[in-house]
């Protein structure tokens, strides 16, 4: 029974990742805001798919602030939005990957929106 639950979880993650990938239109006019999440940290990158370059990145790994994981994720969203403003990037495409739009991913997106990024 436990093996079957694991297979279902893996299948669901793969399905969500594929669905997200299909819906993202990759253009250099709108860089991709890619989110990676671990049990401890959350990282985000702004990627230009045409040039295949990472434009900007931010992570909760180097933050001095303390708080819950969701609070730190929101702070990372605000940091990436500030960096994007300096580079004159306003519109991005959110690539949440295999992660559901919930919890830390949602907090990061809200922080980026408050910072001035448009999805």
Which fold name is given in CATH as the topology?
A: Nucleotidyltransferase, domain 5
Q: Gap between N and C termini, in Å? A: 41 Å
Overall average pLDDT: 89
Helical percentage: 40-55%
How many β-strand runs?
A: 4
Poorly predicted sequence stretches spanning 5 or more consecutive residues:
none
What class would the helix/strand composition place it in? alpha+beta
* Biggest sheet: strand arrangement: 3-2-1-4
Architecture per CATH nomenclature, i.e. the level-2 architecture: 2-Layer Sandwich
Element-by-element helix/strand order: HEEEHEH
Main sheet overview: 4 strands, mixed
Radius of gyration: 15 Å
Alpha plus pi helix count:
3
CATH class: Alpha Beta
Q: Classify the beta-strand content into a percent band.
A: 15-25%
Give an overview in words.
- By secondary structure, the protein is α+β, with helices and mostly antiparallel strands.
- It has one domain (2-115): Nucleotidyltransferase, domain 5.
- Helix content is 44%, strand content 19%.
- The chain is built from 3 helices and 4 strands; from the N terminus they run H-E-E-E-H-E-H.
- The chain has a 4-stranded mixed sheet with strand order 3-2-1-4.
- Strand 1 and strand 2 (42-48) form a beta hairpin.
- Helix 2 (69-86) packs parallel to helix 3.
- The protein is globular.
- The model has no long low-confidence stretch (mean pLDDT 89).
Which SSEs are present, and which pair or pack?
Layout (H helix, E strand, L loop, with lengths): L1 H22 L8 E6 L4 E7 L4 E7 L9 H18 L6 E3 L8 H12 L4
Helix pairs in contact: 2-3
